[in-house]
Amino acid sequence: MIYWLYEQMLLGQIQVLPRHVCFMISGDDMAMAPAKIAEITGWCNDLNAFPQKNSRVKSLQATGSIEGLTFHISGTSPETMARYMQEIRNVADCGRLVLHYGSTEEVNGTGLEVVVAVGKSGREEITDCIRRLAEKKVSPANIDEQMLESCLMFKYNPDIVIKTGGDHLTDFLIWQSVYSELFFSDVNWKYFRKVDFLRILRDYQSRMRRFGK
Predict the structure, then answer these.
(1) How far is CA 44 from CA 78, 81, 117, in A?
(2) Which residues contact 102 (CB under 8 A, 6 or more apart)?
(3) Contact, 156 vs 173, CB < 8 A?
(4) Is residue 120's pLDDT more than 80?
(5) How many CA atoms lie within 13 A of 62 on its CB side?
(6) DSSP three-state, residue 189
(7) Domain count, the chain
(8) What is the mean pLDDT of residues 105-116?
(9) Are strands 96-101 and 20-26 parallel, antiparallel or unpaired?
């Protein structure tokens, strides 16, 4: 009961929702709680539906919704990940799952877009962009930020990047996350709760974003 009341209090304090949220987790995190990705997707669906279900709460109605989620899983091999693939694919039951692993991309489901990227590197992504531009013989004088961004595999800029367990970030989305708000949670991935997520969303709205200005 106390947990529920605290959750409702946090919901009432959230006035601004991010459009895109990125979680960076490790292979060990995935091994400890493979179902957490689908669980967090469910939380985001609940948040998007919250104003419609609670007519007394007006704060979220004018602030949009969470449009996308990304989960980057680092430090594990495709062979190790094979045992958790079904848990990842279960996300398609509550969202539009875009799964990247190795050179393969799978798309299943409908609703909130959820990208799961296994072992992807931001530096490799940028290197591939430069290689493709070179193969097309694009003149260096014609290359700008917009052109480079058009070559990226992941074409979105997360508003929030979350790392659980207090560990360091990876280089994933190194270009796209330059203006993202970073949150490091001391709570390990396995024990990360909805109230921990809501606290991050509440604190996000208090940050003044300057986007490099």
Answers:
(1) 27, 24, 19
(2) 78, 118, 119
(3) no
(4) yes
(5) 3
(6) helix
(7) 1
(8) 95
(9) unpaired
CATH number of the domain encompassing residue 174? 3.40.1180.10
Contacts made by residues 96-101, CB under 8 angstroms, sequence distance 24+: 100/153
Rounded Cα–Cα distance for residues 180 and 108 (Å)? 27
Look up the domain containing 74 and give its range: 17-43+63-120+157-204
Q: Which residue has the tokens 């490091």?
A: 184
- Dihedral angle at the C-alpha atoms of 157, 161, 167, 170, nearest 10 degrees? -10
Residue keyed to tokens 């396995």? 190
CB 45 within 8 A of CB 111: yes
What number of other Cβ atoms are within 10 A of residue 18's Cβ?
21
Neighbours of 87 (CB within 10 A): 15
**pLDDT of res. 156:** 87
**What letter represents residue 100's amino acid?**
H
The burial of 56, by beta-carbon neighbours within 10 Å (0-12 exposed, 13-18 middle, 19 or more buried), is given as exposed
Give 35-61 pLDDT, tens digit per residue: 999 999 999 999 998 755 554 444 444
